[in-house]
Structures are given as structure tokens and as C-alpha cells.
Amino acid sequence: MCDDDLIPPHPDLTEAQWLRAEPELAEGPVGERVRAMGTVRRRALLGGAAAGAALAALPGSAAAAEPRATDATRPRTASVEKFPFPQRPNSQGEFAILVTGDAGTGKEEQYAVAAAAREVCRREGIGLAVGLGDNIYENGPESDTDDEFRTKFEEPNTGLDMPWLMVLGNHDCSGLLPGSGGDPSRGDREVSYARSSRRWYMPSRYYTAALPAGGADPVIEFFALDTNPVASTVAQLDPHYSWNGPYMRAQRAWLDSALEASRARWKVVIGHHPYLNNGKHGSAGTYDGFLIGHYTRGIHLKELYEEVVVGRADLILSGHDHTLQLLEPTTRTAGTRQIVCGASSKSGDGKAHGKHPATWQNFSDHGFMVVKVSDRAMTVDAYTVDVPSRTARLAHTTRTTTPVRATAQ
């Protein structure tokens, strides 16, 4: 959910129950979006040969309920020549990675952050980018050829000519309600789009990527998650995407084995919803102040982070809250640092809502981050952006020389 989105009146309602509980949603901008989405979907269903594919994408349909164990692992063949992954460090002996989140509005703020990032990327020799979800506001794409991919990703990022590791956010998987995360199957459109974009890298809904690519002992490896089925605002209707359904069981098993098998010096988990967060949406397990509900409070995402990730990954990179936060590694996180970077097009409300110890945090400005790694160290630079001048300011730098696994030994 973004800062101007809705909070359900009760935890774990379905979208239909939510609309009945809040009839005023049928009026105003939200009602207009709901009606617009219904019109688009009805049009798609009347598309002759496309009807079956459109039906499969609707929650609760027979096709959507079928087990799809290969969705996350099926290889995708690119139809365009992709921007290559960097094979060697930059002139400073580091692999440098741009980190953005919650960017996909197509508005001036997104353009300003991208313009500021271009100058930093040129100066720092950055060859890879990360997009932390909510890639296409407000409802996600309607197809893998939706023009919003152009207006809310390709054009704003002109000149940032590198692979972008993309993950799914709640807005990318909207159901009837914008940002609900109520239709995870919509994320397949973003996986499909990767075949036609030089930048967009999403070979499957969850995946790994390493630098240098193909090496036996990478310097850094990314583990990209789909957090939506265990952190949606509404209850999931499709049993395939329920919090304990086949999709999440397969993703959890994959993540556990992938982290175990990785020989990378630095391990970074990327997913839209944060584990810990001092912004207004709060932390997994108590999202938006809820203390009950499988979905609304994100209790099962909290379990995934605590049982599989902490103490094994050096960083968790997340968006969702439109803030910039470098939280401190603690005993609770077993040395893993949570970073929130979701201010690349929208900004926060200017105040902290949580008390997790932080190295640095900003709840007002737009911005982005840069992660730089070598065999010797990992550095994270946080930048704020002045939107009118489209310029970046280095606001904070933090550096570590010891991976989490070495600390635990």
C-alpha cells in the first residue's frame, strides 16, 4: 500500500467483503479505478482467442487454482538483446548497484530521481540496478504489452542502460482494489514483459542473480522474492497463492536451499515488503497496526524472514514504505541489516512510526541508494534527491567488512 492508499476496516477481508464493509469506496477516485479495472477486464474477456488467458488470470478461476509448481523456475527466452550483467568490478575495484523502490508513477518525481541517479551511476561505474516493487502504479499492468511499461519504466529510466533486477509489489498484483495484492497472478505479466525489454530482468517470479555472473564464487548474490501472497492487504481467494499454498511452500523451500547452496561472499535478499520498518506501514507481523490476520499483518512473511533469512543474508532490501532507512543489525536479526528504499517516486509523511535502531533514516525526501561490494567490504550510500533541480546529495554512508556468516561463526 502507498501512503495515500486504504487500510481495511478489519483484517483478512476478501476484496468483496471490504467493498461491502466500506460502501463509500464505490465513490470518488477508488470507485473510478475499480470500475475502470472492471471495464478493462470485461473487454479482455471478449477478446476471442485471448479469453482463456484472461480468465486464467482472474482470482478463483479454475485455471488459476491449478497447481503451477513450475511458474517460478521455468526458463524464459529473451526476444531482445538484454543489457549485459557486469563481469568485472569498476575502476574502484567494486561492483556497484543502484537501488530504487516504489518508482512506477511516471510522474516528475520519478523522472527527477532517475536523472539524479544517472549522474551518480556515471561517476560510480554502476552496472546493475534493483527495483524493489510497485513498478507500475496504481493497479499493475493489464497485459505484458501494456503501454505503462513504457511510460512508467522505460522512458523515465532512459540512460540507465543496465539490467534491472525487478520484484513484484502489492500494486503490481492489485485485484479490484488498487494496491491490495489481491491478485498475485497478475505478476506473470511482468515476468512476460522481461522478454521484450533490454532493461527489465525478471526471469521468474522469484529468482537469483549473481555478480560476476556464472562464477563459482560470486562476490554478491541476490535472492529476489515475491512477498505478495503472505503480505497482501486482503485475503487470497486463489488456493495456489494462499499463505500456506503450493506457491509459497515452493518459494520457501527454494529460498532455503538457494541460500544454503550460495558461495557468494555477500548475500542480499530483495523483496517488496520489509521485515523491519520504522515507517507508517510498520514491520512484518504488525503491518498497519494489525495484530491478527494471516495476510493483513504479514505474520507469515515475518516467519519466512526469521526462519529462513536472518543470520544467513547480509542485507534485506525492501520498499513498500516511501522512506529511506538503514536499520542497525541486531541480535533479533542475527546480524542481518534491513534497508528500506521506497522513496524513488513517492515520499513519506515526515515522521518515524517505529523505534527499531537505525544508522540513518529519512521520512520526508525522495531518493535512492547505491550498494558497493568487493571481497573486502560492502558499502551502502544513501542519496536524497532535490526534485526541482534533479540533483542528488550523498546523505549517509555505512560500511562493513565482515559478512553475516563470519560473524555467526
Report a brief summary of the structure:
By secondary structure, the chain is an alpha/beta fold. The chain has ten helices and 14 strands. A seven-stranded mixed β-sheet has the order 4-3-2-1-12-13-14. Strands 5-6-7-8-10-9-11 form a seven-stranded mixed β-sheet, covered by helices on one side.
Structure keywords:
single chain; 409 residues; alpha/beta; seven-stranded mixed beta sheet; 10 helices; 14 strands; 24% helix
Explain what this protein looks like in three dimensions.
The strands form 2 sheets. The protein has a 7-stranded mixed β-sheet with strand order 4-3-2-1-12-13-14. The longest helix is centred in the N-terminal third of the chain and has 18 residues, at 28-45. It starts with 14 loop residues before the first helix and ends with a helix. It is globular. Strand 6, helix 8 and strand 7 form a beta-alpha-beta unit. The protein has 10 helices and 14 strands. The model is unreliable at 41-78 (pLDDT under 50). The chain is α/β, with parallel strands linked by helices.
